[in-house]
Amino acid sequence: MTETSLRVGYRVRASELVGRNWLNTGGRQLTLEDLRGKIVLLDFWTFCCINCLHVLDELRPLEEKYSDVFVTVGVHSPKFEHEADPVALAAAVERYEIHHPVLDDPELDTWQAYTARAWPTLVVIDPEGYIVAHLSGEGHAAGLESLVEELVAEHEAKGTLHRGDGPYVPAEPTAGDLRFPGKVLALPASNTFLVGDTGHHRLVELEADLTTVRRIIGSGTRGFADGGPDTAQFNEPQGLTLLPAQIARRVGYDVVLADTVNHRLRALSLETGAVTTVAGNGVQRLLDAGNQVKARPVELEEVSLDLGGDAEDIPEDAAPRLEDTFLGTDALNISLSSPWDVIWSTTLERVVVAMAGTHQIFTFDPLTGGVDILAGTGLEGLLDGDATAAWFAQSSGLAEDAHGNIWVADSETSALRVLSFVTVNGRSRTQVQSAIGTGLFDFGFRDGEAGQARLQHPLGVTALPDGSIAVADTYNGAVRRYDPATRQVSTLIRGLAEPSDVLVDQAPVESGGEPLLIVVEANKHQLVRVPIPKEALAVDEGASQTQRPKTTVAAGGFGVTVRFSAPKGQKLDDRWGDPTQLKISSSPEALLVSGGGTGVGLQRRLVLSDEVPEGVLHITARAAACDGEPGGEIPDHAACHLYQQDWGIPVILNADGETELILDLRGLD
């Protein structure tokens, strides 16, 4: 860990870019030689990953400012099976408005050549074809800009910098009135439907036929602005929820929506079309590591006994849990992170928010402005139990059932989760359970008993009239059904193009008909009505795991080192002690004998079990740096920056394995 420039004194030649195909190049197959003379940034990403989407937005200003010398190359290295589909990748490149070349790397050839270990990973190559930086995670825009300035000056002086247009060639657009719609909301009073027209950065109200546009809300330009229906601006809006009439009258708006990339909750008056902001300051929230403590055994014993458990089941080294769930009532000054869906909870009498960017579930009270964390520590994964100790992974869909339970489409764990609200011994408890799903790297297309059933990156969920739950199983192109009474999973519809939401349409019931399903078919830019089949399909196409190379490690003592080098013009912010932090856990928990938990510093000694054959090490690193020169004081009112990355490192135990793991937060590999 240093405070020096990112650059090093020795040179490493960049490996050739190998993959199946190139996108955004007009059919040209690029090589590193074609990029010689440019500063090249390799962005290793996968389109399911919320952190990767954050980086795409961080890079846009840099790409625009240095368009004549700087070329981003997206290296798409898929996590899920569906992401290896070239048609799905082309749709994602269009959906996220990616304006740089993208290499399709389905076999992870280039990923492995550059020793990437996490999404996103960034590698900077200088104009002569040498690697100069290896970065992980988000928040590197400022450091990258200073590095680009340094490289421009150096290579302009050497004559090795070539100014001019890059190799980007835009693809032909495919959208119509809607462009990659995200979520849909029924408006019963007008018998219309309000759609988050995500790719057009606006809302669209559709007539009952689901195709005729009644009105458009938002200018259609990516940005942030409150105002009337013609001037308001959004940035990839997603979920929407309708407030109860009595609440709407008091607050002056009817709909709350998740303005995902603006990291805000917005509000809409259906009468006037006026848009306002009700929560979020636009600054992306990062993981609240300081808001977690190791739960004291007495606390977990208290919870366990309340719920009928046994105190002997409480581990001595308890899981991290939230220390404080109340974030305040000044909602406009609270940071959010990629809110993806919202639902009104009749039990809590609040808006429940799927906060995909921090892997948590929030609530928002329209009457008081109060913002709370309802569930999730912020650790990414699948862990059930008390809401303050639970883990989620990019929750993207919410629905309430007739009993007031909140169902969650937890996309990165390919899971269906449920939040239930119980009162035990006079105390209110929120409990989290997994109905379908087993972990971050497990997915598939399998019906049957829920314990062995599999989904693939679901984004939407709704409660069906019979009490079962329908899931928009996005990457399987299907709508699945889960029956809580029998714990059986079946398939209602398949052959869809990335369904991102599903909704029950009760309108036909009024004329004596059966309710229908409305499915948002994102990659066909449309909403479709389909019947709820009497006889569901039974599909078994198997269970899968994300195939990434496993690191062979030895049991016993094991070292973890995360390298961090503050960008030029910044220094570590040590005014209040060590500004770095490591958080380490494992799946299964038994893999890690000791050394887990949260602590300062970027080095840690672990002990790995010799009784667990393989598993995953979950590592989160953070470092805080502020503008200032090494050795000097940090100026008053200096801009400060938080760097963070989460790694899930698959490991296999072998006596001849490695005894140390070195990761780069900012450094050279």
UniProtKB/TrEMBL annotation:
Residues 6-153 form the Thioredoxin domain. GO terms for molecular function: isomerase activity. Keywords: Isomerase, Repeat. InterPro entries: 6-blade_b-propeller_TolB-like (IPR011042), NHL2_NHL_rpt_dom (IPR045302), NHL_repeat (IPR001258), Thioredoxin-like_fold (IPR012336), Thioredoxin-like_sf (IPR036249), Thioredoxin_domain (IPR013766). It comes from the Bacteria. PANTHER family: NHL REPEAT-CONTAINING PROTEIN 2. This is Thiol-disulfide isomerase or thioredoxin. It comes from Arthrobacter subterraneus.
